Structures are given as structure tokens and as C-alpha cells.
Amino acid sequence: MSKLARLAPLALILTTNAAPALAAGLPGFTLAAQTPRFSFYTRGPKVDAEKSERYLAKVEQTLGARFDGHAEYFRYETAGDVAVVTGAYAEGVTYTSRRQIHSTHGFHAHEIVHLVAGQLGNPGVLFHEGLAVVMGNDSKWGGKDVDKIAKRALQGRPAMDVLAQFETLPSDLAYPLAGSLVRGLVEKHGMPKVADFFRACAKPSERDAAFERTFGVSYTQAVGEWAAAL
Q1: What pLDDT was estimated at residue 17?
Q2: Among 57, 89, 120, which residue terminates a domain?
Q3: Sign (positive/negative) of CA torsion 50, 56, 58, 60?
Q4: Distance CA 118, CA 122 (A)
Q5: CA distances from 9 to 35, 144, 207 (A)
Q6: 147 and 115 in one domain?
């Protein structure tokens, strides 16, 4: 998910099994374009089909993973329209198990990252959003470097305590924090290692053990080192 209402808590949409029943026959949508791995539906706004297809291939190459299946991409005009269908007021929502993207953008890099990473593994929403911010938003949020935002957000606050509240933080803090943490892991260990960490997690409860096996340090230690380096 990307860019929720600024004061709304982070919603867990990425791989939820409680998502509303959605299908290609959503009212008002018509098929606008098709590529080898996407079908694009819209109520009028344009889609950038070829750019999305090319970016999907780029994400696959970067993560060393192949997207399995054919995705549906629904283009909306407003975040409110997305909310009517998905229940989440957002510019983008991805259901990885259904291979669906719902977006107000004709091309949405952040959500395409979710599409691939969601099949890779599930270390939890913090890491999914962090990876999508690093790859899909070029480690920026609202045009600002995520490390700068994270540094201000953590001033005088223990990093582990802040991250433990991640899912209830406002999105303008949660996403940059996640992006900064994942960016630090990529810079220190490389993207292939980060992808290996995702693969090692079938569910979020396996995060800490998989983290230590993959990176050679505990999650707690890595968070401390990240915060100290900001």
C-alpha cells in the first residue's frame, strides 16, 4: 500500500485473507490494455501498460524472483474511489494472493514491488513497505530522503519501541522509517541478502529467527546499529 491519508494508521492490506471479494468485473471498469503479465482496467483515466510491464521485469531481476501468474491492475481517479472498493483510503493497494493492484496512478512502481515481494515471502508489513519504498520510491517519501525523516522521528525515542508501534503510526512516519531501515540493510548486505531474508519468512512470526540466520546479527542489534548511524 502507498500514501494513505496522512493521519490514518497504517492499514494491513498487502496479504490479508479478509480482503473484499474483488474480480475483473468491477462495476464501471473496462479492459484498457493487456501485456504478457498484466490486464489493465479503468473507468476512464489512462494506464501506462508497457512501463508497468518493463518495471515488473526490473523488479524480478533486482530481487532474483519471478512473478508467478497474471496480474489485474485497476486504475481509479481518487483515493476515495479506491476506498469504496477496497475499504482502504489510499493511492495504492495490492492484494498479492489475488495478484491485484488498485491504484490512482497509471503506473505505480511501489505497488508493483509489492506484487513480486508478496510472493517472495512474508517478514511482516514493515519490511514489505520498506522494500517498496526503497525500490518503488527511490528511498524518498514526500520528496524527502527517508533517512532524514527517520532521524527526526527517532530523536529521543528508542528505535525498537518506535518500530514496535509501526502498524499504528501515521503513514508519513511509518513508510519513511520502514524505507530507511530496509535501505540500511540493502547498503550493508546487498539486495540479494534482503531477498533471501524475505524467502526465509513464510509468516511474520518467523522474522527474528530468519533475520539472524540471514544477516548474522539479531534484529534488535541491527535496529540499534541502524538508528545509531542515522
Answers
A1: 35
A2: 120
A3: negative
A4: 7
A5: 35, 20, 22
A6: no
Q: Are 199 and 192 in contact (CB under 8 A)?
A: no
Q: What H or E segment, with its residue span, contains residue 148?
A: helix 146-154
pTM listed for this prediction? 0.91
Q: What is the pLDDT of residue 26?
A: 78
Q: Tell whether 48 and 9 lie within a shared domain.
A: yes
Cα-flanking dihedrals φ and ψ of residue 83, to 5°?
-65, -35
From residue 211, alpha-carbon distances to 82, 197, 218 in Å are 34, 6, 7
Q: Are residues 186 and 77 located together in one domain of the fold? A: no
Which neighbouring-strand residues pair with 141? Answer: 144
Q: Confirm if 130 and 101 have CB atoms less than 8 A apart.
A: no
What distance separates the 2 farthest-apart alpha carbons in the chain?
A: 51
Q: Is 210 exposed, middle or buried (0-12, 13-18, 19+ CB in 10 A)?
A: buried
Residues 18-50 have pLDDT tens digits of 344 454 567 789 999 999 999 999 999 999 999
- Same domain membership, residue 105 and residue 20: yes
CATH number of the domain bearing residue 95 = 3.30.2010
Residue numbers in the chain where pLDDT is lower than 50: 2-21, 23
Residue 139 carries which side chain, given as an amino acid letter?
S
> Do 13 and 102 fall within a single domain?
yes
- Domain coverage including residue 83: 2-120
What pLDDT, on the 0 to 100 scale, is given for residue 19?
45
Angle between helices 109-120 and 49-63 (to 10 degrees): 40
